[in-house]
Amino acid sequence: MIGRDVFRQVVVGAAILALFLAVPLLGLGEYWIYILTIGFYYAILASSWSLLVGYVGRISFAHVAMSGLGAYTSVVASGRFDLPLMLSIPLAGLVTGIVGLAIGRLCLRLHGAYLALTTIAFSEIVRITITAEHEVTRGSLGLAAVGLFETTERIPYYYSFLALLVTCLLIMWLVLRSRIGLFFVAIREDEDAAASLGVKVVRWKIFAFTFSSVIAGIAGSFYAHFVQLVTPSMMSIQEMGFVLSMAVVGGFQNIFYAALGGIFLEVLLETLREIGEWRMTLFAVVVILILRFAPNGLFGELMRLALARRTRT
Amino acid sequence: MGETLGDGIGHSTTTAQAWLAAQSCNDMSLLAFSEQVINGLIIGIFYALAALGLSLIFGVLKIVNFAHGELYMLGGFVYYVFASLLGLPPVAAVLVVCAVLFLIGMAVEHLLIDPVHRGKVERADEYTIMITFGLAILLQNLLLSVFGPWTKRPEAIFRGRIEIGELIISGDRLTAAGVGVVLIGLILYLLRYTWAGKAMRAVSQDRETASVVGVNAKLTGMLAFGLGSALAGAAGALIGPVFLVYPTMGVIPVIKAYVIVVLGGLGSVPGAILGALILAQVENLATVLIPDTTRALAYKDAYGLVLLVLVLVFRPQGLFGEKVRRS
Fold this sequence. Notes:
The structure holds 2 protein chains of 2 kinds.
Chain A: H1 2-22, H2 30-56, H3 63-79, H4 85-107, H5 114-132, H6 134-137, E1 143-144, H7 155-177, H8 179-189, H9 191-196, H10 201-227, E2 229-230, H11 237-250, H12 255-271, H13 278-293, H14 297-312
Antiparallel strand pairs in A: 1-2
Helix pairs in contact in A: 2-7, 2-10, 2-11, 2-12, 3-4, 3-5, 3-10, 4-10, 7-10, 8-10, 11-12, 11-13, 11-14, 12-14
Chain B: H1 8-26, H2 30-61, H3 68-85, H4 90-117, H5 124-147, E1 161-164, E2 167-170, H6 171-193, H7 195-205, H8 207-212, H9 217-243, H10 251-264, H11 269-289, H12 293-298, H13 303-314
Antiparallel strand pairs in B: 1-2
Helix pairs in contact in B: 2-6, 2-7, 2-9, 2-10, 2-11, 3-4, 3-5, 3-9, 3-10, 4-9, 6-7, 6-9, 7-9, 10-11, 10-13
């Protein structure tokens, strides 16, 4: 029974992937190709954030700060020190990994909300520092970045972001399917019980936080070389709220639902352009309602309904 | 407290202060030094007002309120509406702010936090963090939609300068700090001597046992959240005229409040007050001691993080906190 459910989920996943692969061939305008590409970036952020929140049960508010840190690392390394992107993007992952490891070691020995408290402070400090150091970062004006490709066409970027998203999701899925995934869930359910059974609780919490930070850093550096401009605003609390909304609306207890939530909310954000600032107000209300009444998220609930109906017939 | 981006006037005055501070650094006279210390003390009282509410809420409900900065911001806006748009006397407007924020806080606790205690929520820890953060995003964008991103400067309780001997202190800060001290004193009295205060202390020690001996834990939780919100709102109302009112005004102050409650020990009331005074002096003196003034000022908000890291490394339970249960 469970095997058939997994099979169905794989079929649904493959169908969605095929749809996104075919989208540029369906004659969608350049503009929507661009929006979907940004949607893929947010999908990577939302799913890697969910890896930490939904599976390990720890919350980081520094996810967009990590993405911004990765973006600035790669842009400064490639722009000032003429490093090729082949090296500067992995460097971004390395830097965010080291920072993640340091923060994780500092806060994750402790119970409770310390990670959330420290990361929210950290993300604001990173934003302040990057704004203040204008000799290197040009402050809030932002820093121009070289493109991933020579061409200005949208299609190569679309497919490379789709490929990056699929790669990240596959790697996370493989990790979650391994023993490590079981450690994560054990920690989420009962940290003390997990420790008593020999799970190195602190080590795996730090691993999860570092892992999700590295993914955010790499996603951020790709994003910087796609929009070809980095500004401190990409790591604001508002951005973090947006990523959290995506994960919660999609369903933060599953990386795939969170990824879909990322694409869905980015497209919705563009569709509702007319109502301006009220969009985020609306999203925040929806987030609160979903958290309170449907914690599986939109896609989690849809999948649950679909599976329940099929098993009944 | 919130001299961040976007407040033209607040920024230029602080730059002037930093310049003065740098001048006084050359010959650190007693006068300049005591001026710095008094300024730090005033800022410390503002910090204490914000951190105290956070600590109260954590103590009773065992949750960190990630919407605290936005309740502070809301206080600033309610004060702006009543004092500047409707023309109420400033002190009366502060009281209105306290009442409004108290009711909002009670409602938030009832609607969003209490379901945790009724067992209606899975993963309570993650839920409370995310739901209060969601509330923060909601309030920020709601106020942004209604009032726009521009800064407002509401009426102060008292404008002008106060001279004590050779010391010159701006009157709006000093009176705001004075009202702040009264409010803090009121809360301390409430916690120590009234029945409601005893109930709050009882629930913060042990929710189950307090319920057994007849304390209404649900009502006490609502009361704590209401009082905490009222304190945050009062802080916003008092500081609004000094550092201006705008939708993101709560972001930096609340991060300082987090640093303070971790420094003082999560849930400790004296810890919150002492932590606030310490952080204010650390920021103040660090700004003076770093030679490059513009840079020293730009990083003013970052010194708290250094303090936070030191606490987490050397004394994670904080100054007054109980030792955290380890796995």
